């Protein structure tokens, strides 16, 4: 492959055992932009992406993608996930999440259904608009109660989702804003902190009041025409916008399942790794001529059964190896 070829073509040539589709090449090109031109990191991120979507990857979130599943449809009513149609003046995307929705019943929210659905929405939007741009997320928790979060963070769903967004997905979450936290009870706030802990303070910011979104964004504001009514915009009500995305999920059901099968059946070429000796072992060998060196029992081998020239103390002590000047080791 010519060095002048694009990152996507070179990566596909070196890592895929099949020909990539044009859509794949478009997505692969985003990794280099997301990693700010660092092709080594972009190559690692792309490989993690394919592994996450393959066998043994994020099976609970990226596999069995059926939008008409009962749990997914219930999640559509329990929590709103609305990606905005417009971008900020700086070119960033935004997703608004209402957790829970005002129409949600007083019952635990399914983390698996919520995050699997979120990934499906991200994939559909990436298909519609495969252009670079960081993601800003606003999560409105004004109606959140402890009962909604019962067992919500028990599994690894949030941990896997955060890992995916941080290290594997073609686009990156740059900021996550939790708004309306002043209404939360202590237990709800604690559980929310525990669930979002992997993002830490570098990404997650909490806002006690329902201050205007564009006030939080500052100079990189979003046009009011693209914001929902509830947040000072003119794009429509959150419920209506969420219903539109529910319909879009159902209409893309076949495509989601085809994509799942394609990535699941994709085989990657073996990863080339350069093996290096442990530093301590190399240091010992370099200075071993005509001297005694100490090696732990964990580095011993079956040949250490002779006790003629070995000084062994109590069980678990170190063994001393003799090294002659002709560099032949014996024990």
From TrEMBL:
Which Gene3D superfamilies does this entry report, sorted A to Z? Alpha-tocopherol transfer, CRAL-TRIO lipid binding domain
Cite the Pfam families for this sequence. CRAL_TRIO
Span of domain CRAL-TRIO: 120-233
Question: Which InterPro entries does the UniProt record give?
Answer: CRAL-TRIO_dom, CRAL-TRIO_dom_sf
The highest taxon in the source lineage is: Eukaryota
GO molecular function ontology, one term from the record: phosphatidylinositol bisphosphate binding
- GO cellular component annotations of the record: membrane
- The molecule here is called CRAL-TRIO domain-containing protein
């Amino acid at each position: 492959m010519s060095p002048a070829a694009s990152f996507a073509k070179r990566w596909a040539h070196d890592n895929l055992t099949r020909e990539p589709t044009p859509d794949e090449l478009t997505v692969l090109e985003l990794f280099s932009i997301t990693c700010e031109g660092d092709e080594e990191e972009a190559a690692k991120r792309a490989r993690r992406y394919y592994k996450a979507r393959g066998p043994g990857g994020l099976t609970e979130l990226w596999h069995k993608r059926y939008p008409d599943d009962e749990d997914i449809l219930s999640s559509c009513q329990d929590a709103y996930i609305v990606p905005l149609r417009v971008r900020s003046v700086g070119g960033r995307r935004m997703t608004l999440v209402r957790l829970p929705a005002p129409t949600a019943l007083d019952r635990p929210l399914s983390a698996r259904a919520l995050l699997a659905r979120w990934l499906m929405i991200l994939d559909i939007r990436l298909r519609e608009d495969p252009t670079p741009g960081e993601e800003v997320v606003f999560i409105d928790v004004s109606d959140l109660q402890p009962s909604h979060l019962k067992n919500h963070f028990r599994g690894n769903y949030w941990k896997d989702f955060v890992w995916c967004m941080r290290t594997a997905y073609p686009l990156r979450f740059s900021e996550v804003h939790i708004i309306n936290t002043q209404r939360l009870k202590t237990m709800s706030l604690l559980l929310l902190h525990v669930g979002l802990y992997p993002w830490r303070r570098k990404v997650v910011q909490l806002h006690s009041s329902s201050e205007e979104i564009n006030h939080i964004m500052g100079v990189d504001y979003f046009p009011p025409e693209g914001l929902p009514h509830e947040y000072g915009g003119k794009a429509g009500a959150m419920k209506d916008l969420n219903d539109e995305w529910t319909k879009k999920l159902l209409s893309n059901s076949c495509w989601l399942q085809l994509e799942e099968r394609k990535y699941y059946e994709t085989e990657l070429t073996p990863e080339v790794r350069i093996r290096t000796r442990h530093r301590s072992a190399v240091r010992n060998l370099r200075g071993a001529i005509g001297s005694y060196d100490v090696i732990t029992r964990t580095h011993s081998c079956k040949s250490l059964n002779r006790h003629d020239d070995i000084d062994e103390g109590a069980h678990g002590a170190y063994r001393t190896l003799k090294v002659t000047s002709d560099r032949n080791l014996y024990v």
